Amino acid sequence: MQHSKENVSFRDIKEIVLGRIKDSTWPSDSILPTETDLAKEFSTTRTTINRALRELADEGYLDRKRKSGTRVRAAPIRQARFKIPVVREEVTERGGAYRYNLISSEISSAPEWLVAKLDLKFGQNVRHIRCLHLSNTQPFQYENRWIVLESVPDAREETFTEFSPNEWLVQKVPFTDIEVSFLATRADQLLADLLGASLNEAIFTTERSTWLKGTPVTFARLYFAPGYRMTTRL
Amino acid sequence: MQHSKENVSFRDIKEIVLGRIKDSTWPSDSILPTETDLAKEFSTTRTTINRALRELADEGYLDRKRKSGTRVRAAPIRQARFKIPVVREEVTERGGAYRYNLISSEISSAPEWLVAKLDLKFGQNVRHIRCLHLSNTQPFQYENRWIVLESVPDAREETFTEFSPNEWLVQKVPFTDIEVSFLATRADQLLADLLGASLNEAIFTTERSTWLKGTPVTFARLYFAPGYRMTTRL
DNA sequence: TAGTGGTCTAGACCACCCG
DNA sequence: GGGTGGTCTAGACCACTAT
Fold it and tell me: In CATH, which of 3.90.1150.10, 1.20.1250.20, 3.40.50.300, 1.10.10.10 is domain B10-72?
């Protein structure tokens, strides 16, 4: 027989509020009571209510504005979160033994499309690396990468025979901004050979551009072996 | 000459801490001072420090555990957030006029792969809808969807001539869990015709499974027109 | 200009987990 | 067992913005 007087947690509040949204106690576009009123209703403080509502807003269920109040979003913004993994970890997480093969590594002047893509100065030098990441003996991902030498001078000497540019960069070079794109690529003969795919097979592809405080660092295209899919629950 | 004594904001703290991580004042795997100590250092309260560190942990930079303290993540978990858009909005956001064409809609017993995918009971009935979403007159997305009738009885009568199943479901059916996958599909002749692609072109594809508290609601494959890419900054 | 959320201070108790 | 983060209370001032 315990009649405990536990505190109400912000998690409880979240659940209750979400319940009232789902059962239309607070229908779409309606305005919730103020934080102060809710705090009274649940015998708690504004701080607790605030955290609950803030997180729900962050999750896309509510829209909050000063003065106008907290409104139920008509169509909740469902959002997915993806981890951007390091290849090695992705391979080992899937239960494979990670291996790495360098295909080529050379210094050249940045091709025009890359200049445009990263907003480089004309004629800047880049190191171009192509390599393969394997899971056991199976190709897992083909990486085609360009590193801006002016931003990463160390990459001039580095040969990338031992470590993949992926890992090397993570270790050596800080970055502040990444742009990631996901797309599909049709396999030409080269890609097919590298990834053990057949010609014309559809290849899931990621592109990453990286900057350090506005300075372009690197651009990479990552081609995954056939059958790869990126999955998330929300 | 103002010598204001402003409060330190949790945003300031976040920035400072992130700075110290990036310039290796606090290198990878090192342990940060306790919240109490940091509060002293910045002449603020634990509450403020806590919020800053909590958010940084949430963003993947820190790892926090009771008793052991707050540790700098060796490889920050970079993560991307994607909105799961409603097709209509995605089209209009890209500046197109949204249009919708129903291709087919019929009731049948769930195919075996779908039974497995959604963990259905054997022999359950589903409504199978195929339709096309257009931007102006260009195909934008081909939708291939199955709705579990036992979970969504209203879908038995609905013809989906006017509204796409996408919008209809958002309006009518609540859901709690979604699983989203992204992959690449090779266009067969049908897909090529529908999307205005050529045979064998690589098609960016999304799969979504939806449940309401454990009960399967619907499964959809969404095929995007050639050239589509999903992009995010982080 | 007034109402609402945004955030900070100050202090407290507690849960988890490492040693 | 004890240290660290997790969270709550209580109260205050402020910033934004609708009216």
Answer: 1.10.10.10
